[in-house]
Write a structure and sequence with these properties.
Elements lengths: L5 H16 L2 H21 L5 H31 L5 H14 L17
Helix pairs in contact: 1-2, 2-3, 3-4
């Protein structure tokens, strides 16, 4: 989804309006699900067959969920550590290193169809 697309113009007001009508408890779940939807929306519009699009969607959402869990866990561990401890420094460095994509820039996903 691109910020200047019609889909985004519909998506943003819908999420913001829903956010203000929900109780404080449910707002975080709305934002999480809206973020996952927003960042994985491109998978459905990349082209290719529907099975390929769904595969891309599950891969994208899976990677996003892994990133969310890793970052959340590291943040909780950092909050428990002493301010200037070496372990805190190692935890702070580990999160971005886990999430680095080892592929070269511009390299495509394995199994991606390049004929289109």
């Amino acid at each position: 989804m691109i910020f200047n697309s019609v889909a985004y113009v519909i998506f943003l007001p819908l999420v913001v309006t829903t956010y203000y009508f929900l109780s404080q408890k449910w707002r975080q779940y709305l934002l999480l699900s809206a973020s996952l939807f927003f960042y994985s929306f491109w998978s459905l519009h990349r082209g290719g067959s529907w099975p390929q699009r769904l595969r891309n969607l599950f891969i994208t959402d899976g990677l996003l969920l892994i990133t969310i869990v890793v970052d959340f866990s590291v943040a909780r561990w950092l909050a428990r550590e002493e301010r200037n401890s070496r372990r805190r420094w190692i935890l702070a460095i580990s999160s971005p290193l886990i999430e680095i994509d080892p592929r070269a820039p511009g390299e495509s996903d394995p199994g991606e169809d390049h004929r289109s």
